[in-house]
Design a protein that fits this description.
By secondary structure, this protein is an alpha+beta fold. It is 67% helix and 8% strand. The chain has three domains: 117 residues; 85 residues; 70 residues, no CATH class. It contains 13 helices and four strands. It has a four-stranded mixed beta sheet, with helices on both faces. It is elongated, with a radius of gyration of 21 Å.
């Protein structure tokens, strides 16, 4: 996103947060609103002239809002319509950025709903677990990444995977929509949702790979060390990989801190071969 769109997104987030905090039944309202905004995204993705018109900065904000009212008033709740009005009234660099902003806004609304139900941390953990399942299941990930397959069919495929899993409706809604509009690949896209959930809690995500599961004390100690390094509260997500032999490998954003025994042995072999 360019500067104008980044500014618009922050303004949209602020409006969403303010509206959510004023609702007496925030969980129900946010759940419905988020899903309805996802439906708006589906509608404008299939209608390029409408998408372009809603983001047309040559028209006034009032004209764009009037168009949104004309097209969507009969199909949206008042809360969802207000979010859409706010979004199209802002200045976006491109129609694509408006669509991206609506997706990010819908996700934030659902995550706020999880927060008000005291399930935000749980949702973050569920999303992390699903991202790792998708990362391990190469064939499934390939099928879900195939843009030649209709979005509805990709979602049905993932829905079957989720059957019987005790996850929140927030996590289910977020991942099903994500696989319907792949940006990078399913595992990475769901991992991005983990980051967004953590950010809403004021945390950064640290994916910690270890030979065995970390204890509570180990998690706390590691979170403190990483807080010192990154000057930020850390959300520790643990993944088990016996092939590391010992130690841990830590992923924070694009950075990797590899203190595993496997990596140390590799460095030793490399040094010996050079010598």
């Amino acid at each position: 996103m360019k500067a104008a769109s980044r500014e618009a997104l922050q303004q949209l987030y602020a409006a969403i947060d303010e509206t959510s905090s004023q609702s007496s039944n925030a969980v129900e309202v946010d759940s419905q609103t988020g899903l309805e905004i996802f439906e708006v995204v589906e509608a404008i993705e299939g209608d390029r002239p409408l998408r372009v018109a809603l983001a047309n900065n040559a028209a006034s904000a009032e004209q764009r809002v009037a168009l949104a009212d004309e097209v969507f008033t009969q199909h949206l709740s008042s809360n969802a319509l207000n979010v859409l009005r706010k979004a199209v009234g802002l200045t976006w660099s491109t129609p694509r950025d408006l669509r991206t902003g609506l997706v990010a806004g819908a996700r934030r609304i659902l995550l706020r709903g999880a927060e008000y139900k005291n399930q935000l941390e749980q949702v973050e953990q569920e999303l992390f677990s699903l991202s790792r399942v998708l990362d391990r299941e190469g064939e499934l990930c390939m099928l879900l990444s195939d843009r030649r397959v209709e979005a509805s069919k990709r979602r049905s495929l993932l829905a079957r995977l989720l059957e019987g899993k005790n996850i929140t409706m927030f996590s289910e809604a977020l991942v099903l929509h994500a696989v319907g509009r792949i940006e990078k690949d399913p595992a990475s896209d769901v991992a991005a949702l983990v980051e967004q959930a953590a950010e809403l809690r004021g945390h950064k995500v640290a994916r910690v790979v270890s030979v065995g599961s970390l204890t509570g004390a180990q998690r706390e100690a590691l979170a403190e060390k990483l807080h010192t390094i990154y000057d930020h509260r850390m959300s520790i997500h643990n993944e088990v990989d016996p092939s590391l032999l010992g130690g841990v490998r830590i992923h924070v954003g694009n950075e990797v801190i590899d203190g595993s025994t496997k990596a140390k042995l590799a460095r030793m072999r490399s040094a010996l071969s050079v010598g």
